[in-house]
């Protein structure tokens, strides 16, 4: 597996613990150092399944041969890339025949809904005609409010446009899901779960909604899986 934009290695480590061989690519030196530090504390069997490469995800062709990976993960990366098409084409070239390209992106199809919830009606109208890959404008926050949601320097993508892009790079869409449906709709965040059973029910509800129309279409994030033909 190739994990592009591996960050501090959370995803790569989970995969390695499950028995997969993972190569992580990250351009931020601090995150690379953090990933290596965390990896050093793992058992030898896990450490041996993870390789960390400091570099830009757009330069995969410099580090790897085409068709080198069965799975390429690119989660939470396109939202920080102004021109994503060259990156996606390069990632598709890394896939072996039948390989899976997994993308996690901001959902640009709900930009109008997000602006409307903030009472920004001019922004709501403008969102209908926004480009397929456009800056995501967050709802205003109260002074001093702390939020885990991303700021205005992120980009959002539309499902239809990404579906066409995947077909064009030889990894047509196989399946897609919504991520964070109900938790995104709650303005101040959903109430904290009251216990383990409540937490399990919340996760189950999100999982069900992420697989079911029309709910998955209004999710904060989209998870797209393309397969190399």
UniProtKB/TrEMBL annotation:
Q: What range(s) does the Methyltransferase type domain occupy?
A: 2-102
InterPro entries referenced in this protein's UniProt entry, alphabetically:
Methyltransf_11 (IPR013216), SAM-dependent_MTases_sf (IPR029063)
Give the GO biological process terms: antibiotic biosynthetic process; methylation
GO molecular function per UniProt: S-adenosylmethionine-dependent methyltransferase activity
The record's section on Gene3D superfamilies has:
Vaccinia Virus protein VP39
Question: Which Pfam families does the record associate with it?
Answer: Methyltransf_11
The record's keywords, sorted A to Z, are: Methyltransferase, Transferase
Q: What is this protein called?
A: Methyltransferase
Q: Which organism is it from?
A: Streptomyces ruber
């Amino acid at each position: 597996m190739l994990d592009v934009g591996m960050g501090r290695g959370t995803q790569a480590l989970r995969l390695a613990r499950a028995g997969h061989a993972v190569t992580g690519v990250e351009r931020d030196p601090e995150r690379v150092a953090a990933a290596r530090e965390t990896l050093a504390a793992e058992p030898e069997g896990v450490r041996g399944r993870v390789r960390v490469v400091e570099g830009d995800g757009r330069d995969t062709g410099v580090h790897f041969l085409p068709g080198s990976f069965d799975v390429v993960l690119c989660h939470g990366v396109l939202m920080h890339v102004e021109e994503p098409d060259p990156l996606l084409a390069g990632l598709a070239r890394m896939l072996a025949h039948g390989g899976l390209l997994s993308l996690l992106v901001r959902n640009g199809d709900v930009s109008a809904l997000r602006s409307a919830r903030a009472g920004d009606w001019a922004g709501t109208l403008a969102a209908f005609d926004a480009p397929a890959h456009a800056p995501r404008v967050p709802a205003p926050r109260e002074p001093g409010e702390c939020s885990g949601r991303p700021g205005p320097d992120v980009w959002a993508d539309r499902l239809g446009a990404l579906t066409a892009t995947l077909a064009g790079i030889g990894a047509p869409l196989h399946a897609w899901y919504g991520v964070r449906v109900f938790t995104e709709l709650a303005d101040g965040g959903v109430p904290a779960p009251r216990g383990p059973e409540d937490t399990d029910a919340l996760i189950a509800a999100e999982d069900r909604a992420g697989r079911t129309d029309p709910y998955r279409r209004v999710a904060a994030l989209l998870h797209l899986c393309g397969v190399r033909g």
